[in-house]
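anyone seen this seq b4? input:
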Amino acid sequence: MKRISNAELEVMKIIWKEKAVKSKKIIEQVKDFNWNDNTVRTLINRLI
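predicted toks r here
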């Protein structure tokens, strides 16, 4: 079974909580992690 990374899990927690959420909102909510916007978008694409 394929597992997701801890970073991907953090993104999924936001998606599960918000249901329908845009990448901009996810980026805002993970700013404490100091991730680049492109990093967050990459995580989202990997999850898709």
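The two ends are 16 Å apart (CA to CA). The helical segments are 6-18, 23-29, 37-47. kinda curious what u guys think
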